[in-house]
Amino acid sequence: MEMTLLRTLTGSLKPENLRHSQTGKPVNFCFSKYLQSAAISKYILRPASRFNSVPHLTHISSTPMADSTSSVLSRVVPQPECGGDAKSENVSSNLTEIIVIRHGETEWNADGRIQGHLDVELNDSGRQQAMAVAARLSREPRISAIYSSDLKRAHETAETIARSCGGLEVIKDPDLRERHLGDLQGISLREAAQSQPMAYKAFLSDRSDQVIPGGGESLDQLYQRCTSCLQRIAKKHRGKRVVVVSHGGAIRALHRRASPHRRSKSKIWNTSVGILHLSDKDEWTIKLWADISHLNKTGFLDSGFGGDKTSG
């Protein structure tokens, strides 16, 4: 019944006849994206304040409506990023807005196992988290590009977001990978002290130039790799809004660049959202950090490994 209702609407409502209730201006609404989101869930998201609250969910009634046109118009969500080459809204021409997102949960996150550069895919919870953050971002003004680490857990999260943002192509960049953790990769943190004492000691070191035995990176190397990558992305998309999906350790390095004199006290939860503004004068500003309001209805792993100093 729900899909029949949607097909009926797409056939009967013409975009040029849709107008904003307050301004009277035409509404640019994408029915194809609306149908695509319906394939994921039978709930439709009402507009919510940007990044401030969990979206209100409205169920499509399976009973006939007295006035189907007016009832549905109160529920549809305009999608300014749908099609065309419109300039990003609310982004100054001298900066780039980068929405930084950590990948969804993996089984190794749940088990406290160190991943590093090892390629671990999302678990079911991680896929649900990715759908939740994708729904959140689908209500953002136009997103121009989506970048991701080339590791599966980040790339799958990015692909889920891309499907909700007009089917953008995900650009993979290995410089967005997690820190390489050498001999610690593949073992749990609780057993690392016993099985790899030298690597474990290096991992916990306060020295930012301390590399990890077994080909691992230092924090300085991670910092240089990740911040240089973000600067390249910002320069390429000046005046635009871009999504970057990465990893806990990498995102903490970005925070260090944006706020060098203040450590982040927030854990970088799976699919948490941060917003950075990078100006053409190489100034970095944090507008939002480690926000997970979209997970309040979905749940998240509060005991999971990673996203803090132990990120991996």
Could you characterize what this model shows?
- GO terms for molecular function: phosphatase activity.
- Substrate binds at residues 102-109, 153.
- The structure is a single chain.
- The protein has 312 residues and is an alpha/beta fold.
- It has a domain at 95-295: Phosphoglycerate mutase-like (Rossmann fold).
- It has helices at residues 2-12, 31-40, 68-73, 107-111, 124-137, 152-164, 189-195, 197-204, 219-236, 248-258, and strands at 43-45, 57-59, 95-102, 145-148, 170-172, 241-246, 273-279, 284-291.
- Helix 6 (152-164) links the parallel strand 4 and strand 5.
- Helix 5 packs parallel to helix 6 (152-164).
- It is globular and about 55 Å long.
- The relative contact order is 0.16.
- The model is unreliable at 1-23 and 25-88 (pLDDT under 50).
